[in-house]
């Protein structure tokens, strides 16, 4: 009986091994561990059976409380409904399904580890990826082995039930402020205020307003109030420091955690053994102001959420059919029920129903599988698929998701080599060395003062640890680069991520495509020579060029005007050469002379591009297109020639060389008759010569070159040919601003380095006063977040001011049409 009573009392005093909640009289003792309820015990059993108990090694009590978890087995049955599941699913084919869940319970490294190991809980799950900032989990699974309902039930069973709100499926969710941080801030604030009140006898000791008995009583009350501050409000710093030690590293929370522990232990020793007042009120103020600064930083970061701003600027445009007429509109204006046209090599922007008899869709950007999928009329085509072959008409079934297309753009298959000398990695390296230096100075200060005044030594030791936080170093880089991204976005220059800015600042060689990049279809002049075009022939040509988004095809399309397109079969676009099709059993071709092995000398000499028209291999006529160089290209090249090595690559013949040299100058190296493979090889040769290459192309025949270069910019006019291989999208009207963009990217690096100097100067001044014991730990706790905020304000104000002086901070006056 005594053993039973002792075991029961032990349960009352313990906390749950899984979630950390107190174990009351209903607690359970299982496998040598205490659990607050059967739900937490069940989760532990699931993880234990699947050899996933490393989850508990990453953090103490990482799980979520399971007491109030619903136990009904049928509460997720609604996910078996096909109509509902289709609204949730991002992508599905014969082999796999992709779905993204919002999981608000994600709160630590253990959560990330467990959710990214779901495939170990069920063989049907291929992989899972966590976006900690957005609290989203993307799951890829094989529907043959596991269903959507089973996955949701599995995640709920281990304590991470997705938040599914079908009425808000098409509305972006903004993650809410971490409530735990608010609770900890409230606890620290309450305790700090009362500890200040109970410390009045110490503050007014000379006036002897209160007797010595009250002074001791208030000291003990301060001890009680310090317990929730030390054991609850400061837990984030302990966990972060412990994870750093486990990984044999030192992060910025290590000195803070050491300072908190030192103040607490020394105060207890002083109060109970030495009869002194201690520093518990200082400890309360320290945690309150640290958490207040952390909360403010988080609010500031949410306000300046650069990823969200970037997706709002994302300039995907779509061809919509209205009364048999084409119109180009922004993706944001596409509505469910709209009929859109997707041409060869274009991405499908939204889940849609196929209206044509057949289509060939490449889902490599979604699944990594490069083999196109053949689909029939009425099939559902998912966003992210790329059309291969003739243009197709689609009926939009789900509102387009820019966030999903952004994920495709950032797909790991298109990630490029990282810069070893990036400012982000530089900041991390500096922060690590900085923290070791701070610890050395702090212990040296403690050793020095211990020989004279140990109490002052503790005060100075703690002050050094708190005031010299490298937070400003860690924050200056993302805030500066993020603000530059926003400035570029207002000038119609849209970057994939902030790392592109650093790569832009490092390039020394620029490679330009000609057609559609340095030249514009809108400025081109066109004429036709050859056999007279009948209405039927014009309809055939109209249908043929409608299948392509190449600038020359667009120009011929405009030249033909309003003509009813003919019905073609077996339409194919050959990159770098042209288009082929079958019409009434006759082969039709339109493109370069090499398409039908026609010698260029067989055609009439003329400057400009030549597009040849063939029927059954017979050359019937030629379209002569003067390229029409974009306005401002000559000035742009003159501004770039002194800083960069310039190259021009074109698939055309060199009959425009003289015109281009007259307009652009002789400083640019020109190469003609370059196929897509030739362009890629040219980039690789430059890189082998230790060149940092920026490729500027139209994203059509230049996908390989854009991908292999250090930075690839896709230039677009009235429609964005979305290419995950590019790092940026630039409105063609803004191409002349490229020198300013490159210069401002370099300026951004200088601003970041200036912020480093500012941060070091602040810390040097702080250490000077802290080692002398002239500043209290509470004042340090106020100054530490203030320094971070000042660096953020410095980088933001300076970049905005420099952008204003260069005319880059105003929104583009010409809207996307």
From TrEMBL:
Family matches, as CDD domains: HMA
First-listed, main subcellular location of the protein, grouped into a coarse class: membrane
Keywords: Cell membrane, Ion transport, Magnesium, Membrane, Metal-binding, Phosphoprotein, Translocase, Transmembrane, Transmembrane helix, Transport
A Pfam family recorded for this sequence: E1-E2_ATPase
SUPFAM superfamilies on file: Calcium ATPase, transduction domain A, Calcium ATPase, transmembrane domain M, HAD-like, HMA, heavy metal-associated domain
Domain P-type ATPase A: residue ranges: 315-408
InterPro entries: ATPase-cat-bd, ATPase_P-typ_cyto_dom_N, ATPase_P-typ_P_site, ATPase_P-typ_TM_dom_sf, ATPase_P-typ_transduc_dom_A_sf, ATPase_P-type_domA, HAD-like_sf, HAD_sf
Name the UniProt record assigns to this protein: HAD-IC family P-type ATPase
Organism per entry: Cyclobacterium plantarum
Native organism taxonomy: Bacteria, Pseudomonadati, Bacteroidota, Cytophagia, Cytophagales
């Amino acid at each position: 009986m005594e053993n039973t009573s002792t075991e029961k009392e032990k349960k009352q005093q313990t906390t749950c091994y899984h979630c950390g909640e107190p174990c009351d009289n209903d607690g359970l003792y299982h496998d040598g561990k205490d659990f607050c309820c059967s739900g937490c015990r069940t989760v532990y059993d699931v993880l234990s059976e699947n050899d996933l108990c490393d989850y508990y090694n990453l953090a103490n009590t990482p799980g979520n409380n399971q007491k109030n978890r619903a136990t009904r087995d049928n509460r997720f049955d609604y996910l078996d409904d096909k109509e509902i599941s289709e609204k949730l699913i991002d992508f599905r084919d014969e082999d796999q399904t992709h779905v993204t869940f919002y999981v608000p319970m994600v709160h630590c490294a253990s959560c990330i580890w467990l959710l990214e190991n779901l495939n170990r809980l069920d063989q049907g799950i291929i992989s899972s990826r966590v976006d900690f900032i957005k609290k989203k989990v993307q799951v890829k699974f094989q529907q043959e082995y596991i269903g959507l309902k089973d996955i949701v039930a599995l995640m709920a069973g281990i304590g991470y039930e997705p938040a599914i709100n079908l009425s808000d499926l098409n509305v972006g969710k903004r993650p809410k402020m971490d409530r735990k941080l608010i609770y900890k801030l409230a606890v620290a604030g309450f305790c700090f205020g009362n500890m200040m009140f109970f410390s009045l006898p110490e503050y007014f000791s000379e006036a002897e307003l209160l007797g010595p008995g009250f002074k001791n009583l208030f000291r003990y009350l301060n001890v009680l109030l310090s317990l929730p501050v030390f054991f609850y409000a400061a837990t984030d710093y302990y966990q972060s420091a412990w994870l750093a030690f486990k990984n044999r590293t030192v992060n910025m929370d290590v000195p803070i955690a050491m300072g908190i522990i030192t103040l607490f232990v020394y105060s207890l020793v002083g109060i109970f053994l030495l009869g002194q007042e201690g520093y518990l009120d200082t400890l309360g103020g320290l945690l309150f102001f640290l958490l207040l600064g952390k909360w403010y930083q988080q609010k500031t970061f949410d306000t300046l959420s650069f990823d969200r701003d970037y997706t709002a600027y994302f300039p995907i445009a779509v061809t919509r059919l209205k009364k048999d007429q084409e119109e180009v509109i922004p993706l944001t204006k596409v509505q469910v029920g709209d009929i859109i046209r997707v041409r060869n090599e274009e991405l499908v922007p939204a889940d849609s129903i196929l209206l044509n008899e057949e289509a060939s869709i490449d889902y490599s950007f979604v699944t990594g599988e490069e083999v196109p999928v053949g689909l029939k009329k009425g099939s559902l085509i998912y966003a992210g698929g790329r059309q291969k072959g003739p243009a197709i008409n689609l009926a939009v079934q789900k509102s387009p998701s820019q966030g999903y297309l952004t994920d495709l753009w950032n797909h790991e298959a298109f990630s490029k080599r990282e810069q070893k000398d990036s400012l982000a990695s530089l900041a991390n390296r500096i922060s690590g060395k900085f923290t070791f230096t701070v610890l050395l100075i702090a212990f040296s200060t403690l050793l020095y003062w211990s020989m004279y005044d140990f109490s002052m030594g503790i005060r100075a030791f703690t002050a050094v640890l708190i005031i010299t936080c490298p937070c400003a170093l860690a924050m200056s880089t993302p805030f500066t680069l993020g603000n530059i991204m926003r400035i570029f976005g207002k000038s119609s220059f849209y970057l994939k991520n902030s790392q592109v800015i650093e790569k832009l600042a490092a390039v020394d060689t620029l490679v330009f495509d000609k057609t559609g990049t340095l030249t514009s279809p809108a400025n081109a002049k066109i004429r036709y020579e050859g056999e007279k075009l009948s209405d039927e022939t014009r309809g055939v040509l109209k249908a043929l060029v409608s299948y392509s988004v190449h600038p020359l095809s667009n120009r011929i399309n405009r030249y033909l005007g309003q003509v009813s397109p003919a019905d073609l079969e077996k339409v194919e676009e050959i990159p770098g050469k042209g288009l082929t099709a079958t019409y009434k059993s006759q082969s039709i071709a339109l493109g370069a002379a090499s398409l039908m092995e026609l010698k260029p000398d067989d055609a009439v000499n003329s400057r400009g591009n030549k597009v040849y028209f063939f029927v059954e291999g017979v050359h019937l006529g030629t379209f002569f297109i003067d390229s029409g160089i974009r306005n401002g290209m000559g000035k742009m090249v003159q501004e770039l020639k002194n800083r960069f090595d310039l190259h021009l690559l074109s698939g055309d013949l060199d009959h425009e060389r003289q015109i281009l040299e007259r307009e652009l100058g002789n400083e640019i190296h020109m190469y003609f008759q370059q196929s897509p493979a030739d362009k890629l090889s040219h980039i690789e040769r430059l890189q082998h010569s230790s060149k940092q290459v920026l490729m500027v192309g139209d994203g059509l025949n230049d996908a390989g070159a854009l991908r292999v270069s250090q930075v690839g910019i896709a230039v677009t006019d009235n429609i964005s040919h979305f290419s995950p291989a590019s790092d940026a999208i630039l409105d063609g009207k803004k191409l002349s601003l490229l020198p300013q963009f490159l210069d401002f990217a370099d300026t951004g690096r200088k601003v970041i380095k200036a912020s480093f100097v500012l941060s070091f100067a602040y810390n040097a001044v702080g250490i000077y006063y802290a080692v002398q014991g002239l500043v209290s730990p509470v004042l340090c706790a106020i100054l530490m977040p203030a320094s971070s905020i000042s660096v953020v304000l410095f980088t933001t104000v300076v970049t905005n001011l420099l952008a204003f002086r260069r005319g880059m901070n105003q929104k583009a006056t010409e809207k996307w049409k």
